[in-house]
Automatic annotation (TrEMBL):
Signal peptide: none annotated. It comes from the Bacteria. SUPFAM superfamilies: Periplasmic binding protein-like II. Gene3D superfamilies: Periplasmic binding protein-like II. It comes from Blautia hansenii. Residues 45-65 are annotated as: Disordered. This is Extracellular solute-binding protein. Residues 48-65 have a biased composition (Basic and acidic residues). Keywords: Cell membrane, Lipoprotein, Membrane, Palmitate, Signal.
Length: 563
């Protein structure tokens, strides 16, 4: 069935998102000796003096490289690439997309798969000991490590026509990829999924609304009235006062949060506690709208409309909040199932609520990817890996192969008016049994593809065109984001700060985080008044919020300069 909104609206939303972006812009390791041995079998020998490596020297391109066409290499070469381990059921080397790419390119990869739990530690060891593989697919601290990575700007122009054309089609690339030296040392990978543009949503029990004859709330006053009805009018119809009108877990962060309740008051709560509008960074917790939002939320709490255990629930506790049955009215999360509701299909996303003056704001993420694929300076044939990356990102089919698995299992490509349209396919038990006997679609995807940790980029332009087969359930998250992003305001734009800026902000943010978590919970539960607000402002000053905000602004300004 066709997607839920028409192309004109999608493109309009994309243009808005681009304007926002422009405005604001790695066998498990047993020992390091084993790592060194593995790396020496590839093109990138370990070790070397950092200062020598950092020099820009004219280097000769390998005679084994074909500048264009396939195969990429005249004779097969081996490269080592570190990547997060996605599945214990099938190794990276066993995946069909890897085998097909090697056959087409003559690029043989020795994959170094690292469990997610140990990724950061092992990647840091690689950089600190100069024991880097030829490339890494996954999270890398670019501000700290870019000097050990190959500069890609000129190689992209010479060897990556598909990537270059993509960058030329987007306002946000390659600016978002620039390291503090103004060069590109990383390439975008992963998922520019529309659903990820807005993290936490408020999900309301539509069945309860229907049972009580209520309309979807659109303002903060209507939202409160609905919560009162959920409290008083037995919407689940069991004759018991067991309903929890509104439950959540925290003030901000990944899912289960109330961060979007600040929007109607003209501020946003975010992981960095700032938002960027028209190039200006604002620290939310110092603004009057923050006070007004907390005062309003305290009113909801005092009337028993908020879950009394909110702010104290662990992730696991929140995930089982709805296990008792149909007892939750409004929940917060990326999707409604984060609160463990047993009837997820009954929930719909609450629109961006209007404040008393009509204000509508919601926090958005950059769809832009700030990296994911890097090549070390120790690699002897980086041009081959640039061409390998460019090949994998040369078509919709390859993006689907590497990110979702085999054709006609979870996806197919349709031709409509001369255009390729990706269609996602429902996976039932029979399909899973016939394609490896996996227990779920997620298990299949992680085993048969690289899922979100892939060298391919699932582009926003692909996501815009997706349709689903007739058996796929509606994607209410997608519908919500498409409708809401017009009110989106970004936290901080995509890009890499200088190491000094990044480290100083991180130090200041740790204390700010600890304070604000307590302050928000206390204000919502116990109330806020002018005296508490005055003390709050003094505390913010002692936490050096002014310096922190200035650092955030300097980061934003540096991205504008890089354009």
């Amino acid at each position: 069935m066709p997607a839920s909104i028409d192309d004109k609206k999608r493109r309009s939303n994309m243009l808005k998102l681009r304007r926002i972006n422009m405005r604001s812009k790695w066998v498990r390791i047993i020992s390091m000796a084993l790592v060194g041995t593995m790396l020496l079998t590839g093109c990138g020998a370990a070790g070397g003096d950092k200062k020598e490596d950092s020099k820009d020297e004219k280097r000769e391109v390998s005679d084994n490289l074909n500048k264009e066409g396939l195969p990429i290499l005249k004779e097969k070469e081996t490269f080592t690439i570190a990547v997060p381990q996605k599945s214990t059921l099938k190794s990276a080397a066993e995946k069909e997309c890897v085998k097909a790419a090697e056959e087409a390119t003559n690029v043989h990869i020795e994959w170094v798969e690292i469990p997610a739990s140990g990724w950061k530690e092992k990647i840091n060891i690689m950089f600190s000991t100069d024991s880097l593989p030829d490339a890494i697919i996954g999270a890398v601290d670019m501000a700290k490590n870019y000097e050990q990575l190959a500069e890609l700007d000129e190689m992209l122009k010479e060897y990556a026509p598909n990537t270059t054309a993509f960058f030329e089609s987007r306002d946000d690339y390659p600016t978002a990829l620039y390291s503090p030296d103004g060069k590109v040392h990383t390439l975008p990978t992963g998922d520019e999924a529309i659903q990820n543009i807005i993290d936490s949503q408020l999900w309301i029990n539509q069945k309860w609304l229907d049972n009580l004859g209520l309309q979807m709330p659109t303002t903060i006053d209507e939202f409160k009235e609905v919560l009162i009805a959920f409290r008083d009018k037995d919407p689940n119809g069991n004759g018991k006062a067991d309903e929890i009108p509104f439950t959540f877990r925290d003030a901000w962060g990944w899912g289960g949060t109330i961060e979007n309740l600040f929007g109607p008051f003209g501020v946003l709560e975010t992981a960095s506690h700032v938002f960027t509008k028209d190039g200006k960074v604002t620290f939310s917790a110092a603004e009057q709208g923050y006070y007004d939002a907390l005062e309003w939320m305290n009113g909801l709490y005092k009337e028993g409309l908020f879950d009394k255990e909110a702010f104290t629930l662990s992730g696991d506790q929140y995930a089982s909040r709805g296990a008792a049955g149909d007892n939750l009215g409004v929940v917060a999360g990326y999707r409604a199932n984060e609160a463990g509701v047993v009837n997820e299909t009954d929930y719909r996303a609450v629109p961006v609520l209007k404040g008393k003056d009509g204000t509508q704001m919601i926090g958005t993420n950059n769809v832009t990817r700030t990296g994911g694929f890097v090549i070390s300076k120790t690699c002897k044939n980086p041009e081959a890996l640039v061409r390998w990356y460019d090949y994998i990102n040369s078509s919709l089919e390859l993006a689907l192969d590497w990110g979702r698995g085999a054709e006609d299992v979870t996806w197919r490509i349709l031709e409509q008016d001369g255009e390729q349209i990706p269609q996602f396919i429902t996976m039932d038990e029979t399909t899973l049994k016939e394609n490896g006997g996996y227990q779920s679609k997620a298990e299949y995807r992680n085993a048969e593809s690289f899922s979100g940790d892939t060298p391919s980029l699932w582009k926003y332009e692909y996501a815009q065109k997706v349709i689903t087969d007739e058996n796929c359930p509606p994607d209410y998250k997608l519908e919500a984001v498409n409708d809401q992003m017009q009110y989106g305001v970004m936290e901080l734009p995509s890009g890499t700060a200088t190491l000094e800026n990044s480290e100083r902000r991180t130090i200041l943010l740790a204390d700010i985080d600890n304070y604000l978590k307590k302050f928000i919970a206390d204000s919502v539960i116990n109330g806020i008044d002018e005296g508490k607000w005055e003390e709050h402002q003094k505390t913010l000053k002692s936490l050096k919020v002014e310096e922190y905000t200035k650092l955030c602004q300097e980061f934003v300004d540096s991205l504008e300069t890089d354009k």
